[in-house]
Write a structure and sequence with these properties.
This protein has 371 residues and is of the alpha/beta class. It has helices at residues 4-13, 24-34, 52-85, 95-102, 123-132, 146-155, 209-222, 228-240, 245-254, 258-272, 287-300, 310-321, 330-336, 340-345, 360-369, and strands at 90-93, 114-117, 136-137, 158-162, 171-175, 197-198, 204-206. The chain has a 7-stranded mixed beta sheet. It is globular, with a radius of gyration of 22 Å.
């Protein structure tokens, strides 16, 4: 099994040896591109294979990440105190808790933004607190009218807040649901009876192990597994937690996420030749899974830090439409045929809101022409 340089680096993160044929500069580029850390995975007896300058840069990146983890923990402590004062709770998605629960060391997983899930009725309340903490929202949501806010909440799943405080993370993503497409992972961890996992903070929790695994598969798959950072979470989780395939399969089917899970497992098998969860019927996965993985490999091995441009956007929408029969869903396509940018540039009364859909091409052309 292979998969280009990305596959080689992925195997290194799982304690396999990196090919000596890859230049050190290329390794550093891939570290930045996939938001992974090299230094923690260069074993002491392997460091003689690399130059002193390379090791110094790798260590420097690791120390920067060390500081970023501390920023996240400082934010989580503040957030926990705020939630405690208001008898509220939140779920932390991915990030530092995943590293704490499943990695050898919480500092070995790259840390950037913080994703927190709250109940939808608390979004405005917590958004105001984030503003007081120095974060600013990157959308005009609070300037929208009631109808626009309703549509925005339905079509999206989080806000993105940016901060400038050196003691806090640069980005906070405030979620009110797990995914924007409600046909998948449509669960509410705040429901009574949901067995969430504790963290070191008494008002912050994480998803339980099987749901965490499935959510990580869904998140990574719907982002085209563009970063190995996300894919690495899966084997580290499975090294700590003995997952049973029948249980994972049944829960994934319940959450309408089985194809996402199978695609993730097949991709790892493609890179490593190994079956991640014992008992997985990897060779019985349908042909569509294998076709999608072959297409994703070119995206995974791209050198660009992010995918940009209209072609990439259209390709991503078509990719998302290939899951859960979304290509036949009117709601799915309507979500992509409307833009909040039009609401700001061309305000219409609520009774004429429906015109934003057929007028979208015209509004887009006007905005681009007069930019």
């Amino acid at each position: 099994m292979c998969g280009g340089d990305a596959g080689t680096i992925f195997k290194w993160l799982l304690d396999d040896v990196v090919s000596k044929n890859i230049e050190e500069s290329t390794l550093l580029d891939w570290e930045a591109r996939h938001r992974v850390l090299l230094y923690p995975f260069i074993l002491a007896n392997k460091r003689k294979l690399f130059s002193a300058d390379f090791l110094k840069l790798c260590r420097s990146n690791y120390l920067k990440n060390y500081a970023q983890v501390l920023q996240v923990e400082h934010f989580l402590q503040n957030f926990n105190e705020f939630l405690s004062a208001h008898s509220s709770h939140a779920i932390v998605l991915k990030g530092v808790p995943v590293a704490e629960n499943y990695y050898p060391d919480k500092f070995t997983r790259h840390s950037r933004d913080v994703d927190v899930l709250v109940e939808q009725h608390q979004v405005d309340f917590i958004a105001e607190w984030l503003k007081l903490e120095g974060f600013h929202l990157d959308s005009d949501y609070f300037l929208y009218n009631k109808k626009q806010q309703e549509v925005f909440l339905k079509n999206n799943h989080h806000f993105c807040f940016h901060g400038t405080n050196e003691r806090l993370p640069l980005i906070i993503e405030l979620h009110w649901k797990l995914r924007s497409n409600e046909d998948i992972c449509n669960i509410n961890p705040f429901d009574k009876g949901y067995s969430w996992l504790k963290t070191s903070y008494d008002h912050l929790f994480t998803l339980h192990h099987i749901d965490q695994f499935i959510y990580l598969c869904v998140h990574g798959t719907e982002h085209g597994w563009y970063r190995l950072k996300w894919l690495s979470d899966l084997p580290f989780l499975c090294q700590r937690i003995n997952l049973e395939w029948n249980c994972v399969k049944a829960r994934a089917h319940e959450l309408n996420a089985l194809e996402h899970v199978e695609l993730s497992l097949y991709l790892i098998h493609h890179f490593t030749g190994k079956i991640l969860i014992p008992g997985t019927e990897i060779h019985s996965f349908n042909k569509d899974i294998k076709i999608k993985v072959s297409k994703l490999l070119s995206r995974i091995n791209q050198s660009a830090l992010i995918e940009t441009g209209y072609l990439a956007a259209v390709r991503q929408i078509l990719f998302l439409s290939s899951f859960n029969n979304r290509k036949w869903s009117l709601n799915f396509w309507m979500k992509w045929s409307i833009s909040p940018a039009d609401w700001k540039s061309f305000p219409l009364p609520n009774c004429l809101f429906f015109l934003y859909y057929p007028m979208r091409p015209i509004f887009w052309l006007i905005r681009k022409s007069f930019r």
